[in-house]
Specification:
CATH superfamily of the largest domain: Response regulator
Largest sheet: 5 strands, parallel
CATH architecture of the largest domain: 3-Layer(aba) Sandwich
Strand content: 25-35%
Number of domains: 2
Distance between the termini: 45 Å
CATH topology of the largest domain: Rossmann fold
CATH class of the largest domain: Alpha Beta
Helix content: 25-40%
Number of strands: 16
Strand order of the largest sheet: 2-1-3-4-5
Structural class: alpha/beta
Order of helices and strands: EHEHEHEHEHEEEEEEHEEEEEH
Radius of gyration: 19 Å
């Protein structure tokens, strides 16, 4: 399987190095290179991108600031000459943090980590039969979609809250969101996906599932409006 990636860096020499590294790997496909975050946004709005190689210290818009503007960000590997942003980078669910000059060995380790987190945790997605398989506790666990109440994100792993128990999976919430049928699940916050069938009450600010109250993120109002226009379960939020 090939993954589409872009390079965002204001240093032409750094871009050339990453391009040569990426072209030596069959699993990556370079869709484009950008010298600033604004050009990257244009590509991200028009192409399906799986991975960003993202510099941080760029003029006008830092790499970390760019990532925060994206409602559904791809996975990211930061490439920078500065150590100071490491904590913030990992708080943004970065796959890895590479310090320049970047060796091919260190680059390859980061790409392998990306490929591992992208593919290993989900073996089967069968929406027709209504279940997913996740790797958890050293085994493949079958999770029926109708049993899921909501999904919560904790940095590099998620917790699937079911009707009877929970399943902890090393996977990002953005990755699992792509696997779920959009007519049954709704991303309401950077850290939460809810089963629309399980919602028992809601306001403009939060969603209730039984006694559990989950916040609606500020950046997800457009999603809510779109679903409202489609007469989804949360129609009326704009009233």
């Amino acid at each position: 399987m090939k993954y589409n990636c872009i390079i965002v860096d204001d240093e032409p020499h750094a871009i050339k190095i990453l391009e040569s590294y990426i072209r030596s790997l069959d699993q990556l496909n370079i869709v484009g290179t950008c010298s600033n975050g604004f050009r990257a946004i244009n590509i991200l709005n028009n192409e399906k991108i799986d991975l960003i190689f993202l510099d941080i210290n760029m003029p006008k818009l830092l790499g970390t600031q760019l990532l925060k503007t994206l409602q559904y960000p791809p996975k990211v590997i930061f490439t920078t000459a500065h150590k100071d942003y490491a904590i913030e980078a990992f708080e943004l669910d970065a796959i890895d943090y590479l310090l320049k000059p970047i060796s091919f060995e260190r680059f390859l380790k980061a790409v392998n980590k990306f490929c591992h987190t992208t593919t290993v945790d989900v073996a089967t997605a069968d929406h027709a039969s209504g279940f997913l398989y996740f790797r958890a506790d050293r085994k493949m666990v079958k999770v029926f979609l109708e049993d899921i109440l909501y999904i919560e994100s904790y940095k590099d792993y998620i917790v699937i809250h079911k009707k009877t128990d929970v399943v902890k999976v090393k996977l990002t919430i953005s990755a699992v969101e792509k696997m779920l049928p959009k007519n049954l699940f709704l991303r309401i916050h950077r850290s939460f996906i809810v089963s629309t069938n399980s919602v028992t009450a809601y306001t403009k600010n939060d969603v209730e599932i039984g006694k559990i109250e989950l916040p609606i993120g500020r950046n997800y109002s457009t999603v809510i409006k779109r679903l409202t226009d489609n007469t989804s379960i949360i129609s009326g939020l704009e009233d």
